[in-house]
Automatic annotation (TrEMBL):
The keyword Methyltransferase applies. Catalyzes the methylation of 5-carboxymethoxyuridine (cmo5U) to form 5-methoxycarbonylmethoxyuridine (mcmo5U) at position 34 in tRNAs. It comes from the Bacteria. It catalyses: 5-carboxymethoxyuridine(34) in tRNA + S-adenosyl-L-methionine = 5-methoxycarbonylmethoxyuridine(34) in tRNA + S-adenosyl-L-homocysteine. GO terms for molecular function: methyltransferase activity. Its EC number is 2.1.1.-. It comes from Frischella japonica. The keyword Transferase applies. The lineage of its organism: Bacteria, Pseudomonadati, Pseudomonadota, Gammaproteobacteria, Orbales. This is tRNA 5-carboxymethoxyuridine methyltransferase. GO terms for biological process: methylation. Belongs to the class I-like SAM-binding methyltransferase superfamily. CmoM family. InterPro entries: Cmo5U_methylTrfase, Methyltransf_11, SAM-dependent_MTases_sf. S-adenosyl-L-methionine binds at residues 27, 54-55, 75, 119.
Length: 253
């Protein structure tokens, strides 16, 4: 646990570098499409219990709460939770808050949730397999897991296209610890194997940002955003594009 990342020191940087950018918008839109598919599998008026594990600043949690669901947001960072509380207030929704590491959630929460969401956490945790086991324990029988992780293949491809050969030769191990470059980029096949070992059946895989991050002309990320977004939507579930996405989102049951 002592090797897992806490973002108290760079909470503001998260807001600027991720949520307020074109890459953040694409991520939010594509992931939300997948979450709507999960919601559609339940009776329309059913109030669901949902855990946003490592939910950060609460964007998805607030959207789900607005739909009338009982949403709990869990994060190891107290500062992130404060941002989430402020965001919930501006959206006039109520969330439940847990300032804990996901792996430390007590046994009373076992099999509590219809849906567990865990986005962009796996790549910051030393024991990735242990995290997935903890998530499985929190799911009700036949519950759904929404898991998004930073893709090792996408990182390698991007690093080589930038000509950063030294970084490749270092095994993609970053020099500075307090950055937004994840500590443990994940090989998708390894993640899929962990899910299988814990009897979590993959229903769908989606690539998050299959084109955006590889564009040479960065100005077109904004100037041609709508066209880019349509292409992201069109190809995000198709190979070979999915394999090279910066993030991969998995729906499992």
């Amino acid at each position: 646990m002592d090797t897992d990342r806490n973002f108290d020191d760079i909470t503001d940087k998260f807001a600027q570098n991720i949520y307020g950018t074109t890459k953040g918008k694409i991520r939010e839109i594509i992931v939300w499409q997948d979450i709507e598919k999960i919601l559609a599998l339940f009776p329309k008026q059913q109030k669901l219990t949902i855990l946003d594990a490592g939910g950060g600043q609460g964007q998805i949690a607030c959207k789900l709460a607005k739909l009338g669901h009982d949403v709990t947001i869990c994060d190891i960072s107290a500062q992130m939770l404060e941002v989430a509380k402020n965001h919930a207030q501006t959206q006039f929704v109520t969330l439940n808050y847990l300032n804990k590491a996901i792996q430390d959630l007590p046994a009373e929460f076992a099999q509590s949730y219809d849906i567990v969401i865990c986005h962009a956490v796996l790549e910051w945790v030393n024991n990735g397999k242990g995290l997935i086991y903890a998530l499985k324990q929190l799911l009700k029988p036949s519950g759904f897991l929404s898991l998004m992780f930073y893709n090792l293949h996408g990182l390698l491809f991007r690093t080589v296209t930038l000509g950063n050969f030294g970084y490749v030769q270092m095994g993609l191990n970053k020099r500075k610890k307090k950055t937004l470059s994840p500590d443990y980029p994940r090989n998708p096949d390894e993640v899929y194997q962990w899910l299988s070992e814990f009897s979590l059946r993959i229903l769908e895989k989606t690539g998050i940002r299959v084109f955006h991050d590889y564009m040479l002309d960065k100005s077109k990320q904004q100037n041609r955003f709508n066209e880019l977004l349509e292409l992201e939507k069109k190809f995000c579930r198709q190979e070979p594009y999915l394999q090279l996405a910066r993030y991969i989102h998995v729906i499992a049951q």
